[in-house]
């Protein structure tokens, strides 16, 4: 699948994945479209390539006045930056997002400032988000159910990646829309890589979120990046190990270098060997993830 294209999710009736082409990397940005009785778009991308998403929704067979729900998994702009544009495009759709993310989509100024500070030059891959009107958005929380007519999604809080993060479970189809809760599964290397951005990444909670997904026992996990994957017995165990090993690597490098900026620069340099996305994104992502772990370690030390 190439940027701007969509395809069915194998083994799940009426579910499609659209590739936003985020960060000029094929399949990195996954948006899911459920052509249910009350259709839904799950996650929105940054908004930068929204025209292609609108075309995919139309080709799937969903008219502008038919879309019922726009459902970001969390407020980070690579997942929710297009929410305001979708709300404008689909006048009968209600935006629903975890409760702590509502204010960020109604007034995205603080989130934009934080994102620009965190991603630097990578901001060129984002669109300036359009605010979601406050009469078009509702918060969701643990145990809430989203009615798609012929099925429903169950909301499960998963705040390890960010406090405004949830996963959505379709128990009948055996699908979990995990977004960033279980890391990023990268097909090219057949491995999970952690995603640990500052300032609110919580390592222990992230492990709990992965255990939650294990308990849901899905057949398919719809990752927020690089698309869906059939869930086998080893996948989530690999995810937990990847997080444990990554946090320990950052902890050890901090003890060795004694300077957080040097730690971030070290991991940024190491990232040059990563070739499954563009080099600029690899460096920015690895530096961001290192800074997220360092911030988490500071909180742990302060609480001790």
TrEMBL record:
Residues 28-225 form the Metallo-beta-lactamase domain. It comes from the Archaea. Pfam families: Lactamase_B. InterPro entries: Metallo-B-lactamas, NDM-1-like, RibonucZ/Hydroxyglut_hydro, ST1585_MBL-fold. This is MBL fold metallo-hydrolase.
């Amino acid at each position: 699948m190439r940027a701007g294209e969509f395809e069915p999710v194998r083994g799940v009736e009426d579910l499609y994945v659209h590739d936003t082409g985020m960060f000029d990397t094929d399949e990195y940005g996954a948006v899911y479209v459920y052509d249910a009785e009350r259709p839904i778009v799950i996650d929105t991308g940054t908004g930068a390539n929204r025209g292609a998403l609108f075309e995919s929704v139309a080709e799937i067979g969903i008219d502008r006045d038919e879309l019922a729900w726009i459902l970001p998994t969390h407020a980070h702009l690579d997942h929710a930056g297009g929410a305001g544009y979708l709300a404008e495009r689909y006048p009968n759709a209600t935006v629903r997002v975890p409760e702590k993310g509502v204010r960020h989509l109604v007034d995205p100024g603080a989130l934009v400032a934080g994102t620009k500070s965190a991603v630097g030059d990578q901001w060129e891959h984002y669109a300036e988000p359009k605010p979601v009107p406050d009469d078009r958005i509702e918060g969701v929380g643990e145990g809430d159910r989203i009615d798609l007519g012929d099925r429903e999604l169950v909301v499960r809080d998963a705040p390890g990646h960010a406090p405004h993060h949830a996963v959505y479970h379709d128990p009948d189809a055996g699908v979990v829309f995990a977004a960033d809760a279980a890391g990023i599964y990268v097909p090219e290397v057949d491995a999970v890589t952690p995603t640990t951005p500052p300032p609110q990444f919580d390592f222990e909670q992230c492990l709990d979120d992965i255990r939650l997904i294990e308990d849901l026992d899905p057949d398919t996990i719809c990752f927020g990046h690089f698309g869906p994957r059939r869930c086998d017995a080893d996948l989530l165990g690999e995810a937990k190990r990847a997080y444990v090993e990554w946090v320990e690597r950052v902890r050890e490098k901090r003890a060795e270098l004694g300077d957080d900026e040097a730690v971030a620069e070290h991991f940024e340099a190491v990232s040059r060997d990563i070739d499954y996305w563009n080099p600029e994104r690899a460096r920015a992502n690895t530096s961001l993830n290192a800074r997220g772990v360092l911030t988490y370690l500071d909180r742990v030390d302060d609480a001790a």
